[in-house]
Hints:
This protein is α/β, with parallel strands linked by helices. It is built from twelve helices and eleven strands.
Amino acid sequence: MDFALFSHIPWPEEHTPRGLLADLSEQAVAGEELGFKAVWLAEHHFTRYGLGASSLIIASNIAARTARIRLGTAVLIPPLHHPVRLAEDTATLDVLSDGRLDVGFGRGAAGSEYVNFGVDHGESQARYRETIEMVEALWTTPDCTFAGEYYAARHLNLVPTPLQQPHPPVYVAATRSAESLDFVASTGRRMIIGVVLNTDDALDLLQRFLSQSDRAGNAVTAADVPFFRYFYVAETEEQAHRDARDALNWTLDINTWRREFAVGSEVYQRIADYRQRRTEFPPTYEYLAEHRAFIGTPDQCAAKIQALHDAGVRYFGCNFAFGGLEQGKQLKSMELFAREVMPRFADGDGG
């Protein structure tokens, strides 16, 4: 079973972007040393929910500090990028990283991101499909000519082309949209399963994806599907919940708050003020700890991962970096996980 790291690089008010990005680099370096396969970064704009507006630049910084860990995007939002620029940037990063790039795409969820880029959210499905197809064509086709509804190219030669051949692995996020699931399953691409679904629903999505991919004749397996959960492990169950509670509650609150904004964002407002006046409440910490997060002792977390393994999951991603959790606690949790949990799944047969 493979294990990976994930972060949307949250930015609580008491932190600075410089400090958080430095922490992320330290986590990636530690992750490589501890045996994690990849570090995946989210793209978000205009919100403290995540600092990953330029996630490829952040990944490039990590590439320069590491040698083996793969660099994943979970996800890039294609409608917010010109496909030529996106193809150039991803190809360049693939070369710089010595072929360690995994490219994940998704439509994103925040309407304010589309508004501020001047993109009609109603066109997001068509734009994201066309952009993915054009990027892949530019990666692989000399003297490329492409004619789409939104973009076109005539006799375009990408410089440089990706190091990985025919191109970096492509992943597509799908959650509740049957249209997105059909797109990724029917085209032979890999799927990403994020933290936004409850675990039972996420497992059902995985099985539907594998079944549809098989019916379409595509050789995609569970090992090709990163399955992400919020994650925190500590020596005792009490300590795990004590450490994780405030950070996960911040994540839940900021995610609810940011969706109030059709334009603008919450960046220059105080979350304490929002918490006093809000009328919409997210799921509780207890609900998330039961249905979407793996929080507990090494034995408890290993049992939950074993249940995923029994259900077919072969690539598990840990979101240790949620809600501004103290860096020392994140690193200690990563080390405890690598020492006490990962070895139980090293033989490929589960614990």
